[in-house]
């Protein structure tokens, strides 16, 4: 693993940071989240048109720039630094990879160039929480999309196509996205399976309601579908079979694997965003303690303050290392302790990196509020934005202890010792991110 960044990667970071520092300060963020779209349209058009941000990880033949997960993670570290409200995560991290891996050739040509240019925004709508559907905190081969009973989203053929009926909550950017990628249950109980469907935002029978959220920089919506026409993602709505509740080994599938891989990329990007946010709030706190005086001297000169901020710095740098490793692992699909196909190494690296980054951001934001004193509790100050981002991301994609527990389970740390097998006399070889709190 080469830990040095290329000149191109450093240039992506510097260029994006310069633009965001000029046009996306705390005041601009507060104004943007209050708009109908939930983000600054003019800034998004500039990021898409001038910098190619939405197509950063898409191939060139589909309108992207041909970069990979590492470049996307570096870019999202900068967007996380300023808490940029945008459709980047929902469209380019959740929806676009699924369309690229499962969509037909015509679907990829129709949607991905528009997503890469910023012309089309998209999102993933699942009846279950995203952490479940993307296999971040547990297996996603359980019946989470409807199971042939009431609830979730049901799909049925109508002779000429497919119709969806049901509801999905907590859909990121669902109130404004132009394209919805909906996970729906089909086949009834005997042939139970879950498939992904493409739904146009203007389709009849579709109702979208923006929800009040803790973190307004990640707007969410409730999606209601009443016999909405939909197009299966791919040539047919094959989906993945849902095993009987008593089955010991549920069957694998292409759709299941794609959702899991999307979860690994999402965890990596979220970790990078959290690292950027933690770095920004730490820098703001350090600047403040240098000028705030108590007992006739700056409070930053007190040893206790230095120790606490040093602890925050160590946590942030550890989380940054974990996020960079996860980006490398997702990009190469390899890593120490990986399975022959690379899946297990990524499955451990990505959720662990997210858990470390969420902890670092929560700790950095909490200390920022404390060191800013009464100012840190006010609505006018920006500290509360980072507190809400930390809490909101953990509610959506965590909590951190479940991310660690599932990663440890995937790594085999909780596997029972076979009967009669001798106890291990030496520790096992370290897997990815050895030493993190699994």
UniProtKB/TrEMBL annotation:
The keyword Disulfide bond does not apply. Residues 268-406 form the Acyl-CoA dehydrogenase/oxidase C-terminal domain. Keywords: FAD, Flavoprotein, Oxidoreductase. Residues 416-438 are annotated as: Disordered. Residues 422-438 have a biased composition (Low complexity). InterPro entries: Acyl-CoA_Oxase/DH_mid-dom_sf (IPR046373), AcylCo_DH-like_C (IPR036250), AcylCo_DH/oxidase_C (IPR009075), AcylCoA_DH/ox_N (IPR013786), AcylCoA_DH/ox_N_sf (IPR037069), AcylCoA_DH/oxidase_NM_dom_sf (IPR009100). It comes from the Bacteria. Residues 6-119 form the Acyl-CoA dehydrogenase/oxidase N-terminal domain. Belongs to the acyl-CoA dehydrogenase family. PANTHER family: ACYL-COA DEHYDROGENASE (PTHR43884), ACYL-COA DEHYDROGENASE FADE28 (PTHR43884:SF20). This is Acyl-CoA dehydrogenase. The lineage of its organism: Bacteria, Bacillati, Actinomycetota, Actinomycetes, Kitasatosporales.
